[in-house]
Amino acid sequence: MTKLTGLFPVTLLVALGCTSTAFGALSCTGGFYFSETGTGTGPTAGVPQDAEACVTITSATQITVVLQNNVPTLTNNPSVLDGFSFTLSGTSPAATGIASVAATNPIFCATAGSNCVVDSGYYDQGGSSATLTPSPYEWGLGGNGSVIAVPASPTFLLVAGDGSLHPFGIVNSSVLTDTPNLNSTGHNDYLEGPVTFNLTTSGSVTDVDAATFYFGTAGDAHPGTPGGVPEPTSVLLLGTALAFAGKLLRGRLGA
């Protein structure tokens, strides 16, 4: 019998290593992780929509939700993350309000075709640019006249613009370098992710069962995948490593 020595065990280890799940940029230690990668529908067909979330039960009266927009080159409003819903389980679980919202930066996109910039503060440019908008930056829990159907408890909806899906949608740093078309006054400012929502709760919350991400002012909905999935790069590396391992194995067995 031919002994499998040399490079084959190393190649096999590399292949197995490639199967580890890649969770993207967002850390979620101790929380419930969700991700999605997709594109828009209808008029926004083909527009990239990619995000991840971490929902953490931090105490008997508080839940923390962290949202990150992962669209690699974010150039248009249908790629802006404007809403997130999640389902809680436990004894009469309820999300009762938003205590605070914290983002990496306020982002302002003034001119079509020009890079967005970090703003001097959080302003609703559709209102009075001379007045700072305080936390929670017009995000609402449940939606007020939302274009998204507000789900019944125990599923809860976080939505920008108190239901209108703008302003203060969530973007990422790619808008600072990729000359985006995000200059619509009513959408400015934006929040640079990751964005942290601290929610007050009641009842006994034990689990987060499901989540959905919403993009753009059409509210394109994408169900979140619990725990994440391997990134395409990891899958490609795995295929390459396994192909090389198979070729090497055939060569060894034929020796």
Describe the structure.
By secondary structure, the protein is mostly beta strands. The chain has one domain. The chain has helices at residues 7-17, 232-253; strands at 32-39, 48-59, 62-69, 81-102, 105-108, 117-118, 140-141, 155-159, 170-171, 190-192, 195-215, 220-223, 225-226. Strands 1, 2, 3, 4, 7, 8, 11, 12 and 13 form a 9-stranded antiparallel β-sheet that branches. It starts with 6 loop residues before the first helix and ends with a helix. Residues 1-23 and 229-242 have low confidence and may be disordered.
| Overall number of strands | 13
Strand content: 35-45%
Q: Please state the overall shape, judged from the principal axes of the Cα atoms.
A: globular
Q: Residue share in helices?
A: 10-25%
Supply the number of structural domains. Answer: 1
How would a crystallographer describe the biggest sheet?
9 strands, antiparallel
Please identify the oligomeric state: single chain
Tally the helices. 2
Radius of gyration: 22 Å
Order of helices and strands: HEEEEEEEEEEEEEH
SS-based structural class? mainly beta
Query: Segments where pLDDT lies below 50 for 5+ residues?
Result: 1-23, 229-242
How many angstroms separate the termini?
10 Å
Averaging pLDDT over every residue, what do you get?
A: 82
